[in-house]
Amino acid sequence: MADTSSSADDRETEHIRVRYWAAARAAAGTTHDDLPVTGPVPLAEVVRRVVARHPGTRLAEVVSVCSVLVDDRPVGTADPATVSVEPGSSVELLPPFAGG
After folding, report:
1. Is pLDDT at 4 greater than 80 in this prediction?
2. pLDDT tens-digit series, residues 48-100
3. Which of 28, 32, 37, 39 has the smallest number of Cβ neighbours within 10 A?
4. How far is CA 68 from the centre of its chain?
5. What is the mean predicted confidence (pLDDT) over 39-43?
């Protein structure tokens, strides 16, 4: 008889979608990345992982000046290490825009 029990190691991998806008899109060379996760992760880890996915680009520099939305909610001045991003969430990286 097959074992049908599940454990934390058997959890399905879910994703966090990171969308890039304007200069962030140009630096990443893509419109978005989907990061596999098995549970909530700090926003700081999400940023670290997307920068690591695009070595040799200006993405780290651009992201450092971006406004960030998590599920359409502005992060503002919150410490990225304390902002939890849930599986299935979206993170928007919005560089400063000219004009208004």
Report:
1. no
2. 999 999 999 999 999 999 999 999 999 999 999 999 999 999 999 999 975 54
3. 39
4. 9
5. 97
Pairing mode of beta strands 32-37, 67-70:
unpaired
pLDDT-based confidence at residue 17 (cuts at 50, 70, 90) = very high
d(CA 91, CA 93): 7
Architecture of domain 12-86 in this structure: Roll (3.10)
Please give the structure tokens belonging to residue 60. 């780290």
Q: From CA 66, how far away is CA 98, in angstroms rounded?
A: 13
Compute the distance between CA of residue 95 and CA of residue 69 in angstroms, rounded to an integer. 11
Residue ranges with strand state E in 1-100:
14-20, 32-37, 41-42, 67-70, 73-74, 84-85, 90-94
Residue 82 φ/ψ, nearest 5 degrees: -105, -5
What type of residue is 37? Answer: V
Give the tokens for residue 56.
Answer: 């040799």
Domain extent listing, the chain: 12-86
